[in-house]
């Protein structure tokens, strides 16, 4: 009898023989007919990773990406049939591959691609109307909670993660410089956009994510923090959805 | 017994691809309904759900699951049953269908439709899984015949007997994939026409058509691959004509999932399906 455990084990590891009990229409051993399933599984999972990580695929080139994806899919099959979530652990996996360890920024670029995909599928939320900030006195503003949209994602990196991503994905983008970059990802309607955050911006937004009031978030961002540019990014990107006055 | 009222119309439909969204809204003819893969519409929001809501206001929608693993040895995933229930409940599609196959084992999803032997034991399990699904979504489903590249020594029933008995035990209807019949019959050396003769056509709520690729096995025998990446082959259209002659008009779906063409090419395939329907409607 051919169990599904046998069938699955040999699907993902070609060093296993074709499971017994599988035949063609005349009772002969199935042989390479079984390879159709091996190929379907590997190709479909690799295609899913390539769709999810176009910048990584471009940075590594076809052969290296196929190697990395092939190793990953044999160790990490999807945990559910929702392929939109597949590959969430691929960024961490990339850091374990010896030949790729010299490319320090690779995992963070992959984290950025995961964040973009999560943002794309996140729940819809109304875009915050900046007029609601007008007329608030300072006390009311300092104690208010700015609510981030479900599509908002924050990525802090010691690498020029957004510059590398843009250089890879957007023709004509400038060559990255060796600087740390913090990035906000959000969508106003359907397409997530990525925004470079100024100094202190990521601390400010991280505090909002932790449900701290506006005043506490300002403190978290430090004395030299200039709110204007970060607030402007928050408003333009669709990352804010509401304000709760206390 | 499967009730075909409030089901899909006996017109051509296509598997929906997001790149065709504008074309479909502007110039859908001859397409009268659309099919979507359930698992692509289980995110929390964003464009996929917005597009599906907009399309469902214009077209009957068929929801086609590709991930429940009805033929699996494991119990059905309760989380996935709940997701399907949620989708069917807000969308209220014209039809829900799934596959006679397994795709999940030991909590690992393999993203392919894998085969199962046809025995009394698997019959009971498949019927029980369909029963659970139908209870969850509150309506009967259609079960699709697989494309097979190999057979199981342990099988004791023909596929058509198996499908008939599953439908009898669970009350589900059937989705007849004519390309899968042609692919499986060629690969396993039986007559596709004989399969249609044996198949319970009165239970069919939908027919699938898709393209296949040609390969060969270790002995040089033809091995057709169900690729959904090209036009429907001529012998499959001929098998469809034979089927429609016996069944009468049915909802006909063109599946094109890889190397997806521009809308006019897909609409032309749907036009060929419309011609096949016109022959039996006249």
TrEMBL record, chain A:
Stretches assigned to the Putative DNA-binding domain: 3-94
UniProt cross-references to InterPro entries, sorted A to Z: DUF2063, DUF2063_N_sf
Stated name of the protein: Putative DNA-binding domain-containing protein
UniProt source species: Pelagimonas varians
Automatic annotation (TrEMBL), chain B:
One Pfam entry name: MbnB_TglH_ChrH
Domain of life: Bacteria
Gene3D superfamilies on file: Divalent-metal-dependent TIM barrel enzymes
Signal peptide bounds: none
Parts forming coiled coils: none
InterPro entries hit by this protein: MbnB/TglH/ChrH, Xyl_isomerase-like_sf
Similarity remark: Belongs to the UPF0276 family.
Protein name: UPF0276 protein PEV8663_03254
The organism of origin for this protein: Pelagimonas varians
Highest classification ranks of the organism: Bacteria, Pseudomonadati, Pseudomonadota, Alphaproteobacteria, Rhodobacterales
């Amino acid at each position: 009898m051919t169990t599904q455990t046998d069938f699955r084990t040999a699907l993902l590891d070609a060093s296993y023989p074709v499971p017994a009990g599988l035949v063609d229409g005349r009772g002969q051993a199935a042989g390479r007919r079984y390879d159709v399933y091996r190929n379907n599984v590997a190709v479909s999972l690799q295609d899913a990773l390539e769709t999810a990580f176009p910048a990584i695929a471009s940075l590594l080139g076809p052969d290296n990406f196929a190697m990395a994806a092939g190793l990953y899919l044999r160790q990490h099959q999807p945990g559910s049939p929702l392929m939109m979530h597949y590959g969430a652990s691929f960024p961490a996996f990339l850091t374990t591959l010896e030949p790729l360890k010299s490319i320090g920024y690779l995992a963070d670029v992959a984290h950025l691609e995961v964040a973009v995909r999560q943002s794309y599928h996140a729940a819809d939320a109304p875009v915050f109307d900046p007029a609601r900030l007008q007329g608030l006195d300072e006390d009311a503003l300092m104690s208010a909670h700015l609510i981030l949209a479900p599509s908002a994602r924050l990525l802090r990196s010691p690498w020029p993660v957004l510059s590398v991503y843009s250089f890879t994905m957007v023709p004509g983008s400038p060559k990255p410089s060796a600087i740390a970059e913090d990035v906000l990802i959000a969508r106003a309607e359907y397409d997530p956009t990525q925004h470079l955050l100024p100094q202190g911006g990521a601390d400010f937004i991280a505090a909002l994510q932790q449900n701290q009031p506006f005043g506490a978030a300002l403190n978290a961002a430090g004395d030299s923090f200039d709110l204007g540019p970060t607030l402007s990014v928050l408003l333009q990107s669709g990352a804010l959805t509401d304000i709760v006055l206390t | 017994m499967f009730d075909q009222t409030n089901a899909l119309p006996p017109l051509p439909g296509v598997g929906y691809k997001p790149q065709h969204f504008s074309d479909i809204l502007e110039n859908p003819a001859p397409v009268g309904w659309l099919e979507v893969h359930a698992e692509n519409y289980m995110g929390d929001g964003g464009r996929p759900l917005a597009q599906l809501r907009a399309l469902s206001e214009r077209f009957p929608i068929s929801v086609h699951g590709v991930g429940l693993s009805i033929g699996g040895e494991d119990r059905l995933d309760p989380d996935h049953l709940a997701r399907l229930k949620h989708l069917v409940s807000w969308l209220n599609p014209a039809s829900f269908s799934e596959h006679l196959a397994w795709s999940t084992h030991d909590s690992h999803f393999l993203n392919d439709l894998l085969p199962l032997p046809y025995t009394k034991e698997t019959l009971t399990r498949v019927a029980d899984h369909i029963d659970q699904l139908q209870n969850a979504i509150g309506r009967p489903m259609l079960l699709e015949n697989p494309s097979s590249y190999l057979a199981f020594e342990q099988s004791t029933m023909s596929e058509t007997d198996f499908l008939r008995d599953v439908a009898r035990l669970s009350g589900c209807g059937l989705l007849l994939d004519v390309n899968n019949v042609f692919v499986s019959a060629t690969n396993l050396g039986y007559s596709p026409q004989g399969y249609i003769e044996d198949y319970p056509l009165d239970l069919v709520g939908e027919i699938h058509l898709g393209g296949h690729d040609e390969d060969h096995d270790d002995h040089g025998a033809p091995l057709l691959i169900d690729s959904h990446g090209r036009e429907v082959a001529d012998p499959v259209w001929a098998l469809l004509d034979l089927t429609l002659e016996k069944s009468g008009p049915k909802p006909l779906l063109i599946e094109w999932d890889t190397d997806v063409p521009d809308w006019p090419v897909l609409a032309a395939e749907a036009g060929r399906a419309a011609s096949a329907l016109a022959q039996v409607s006249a």
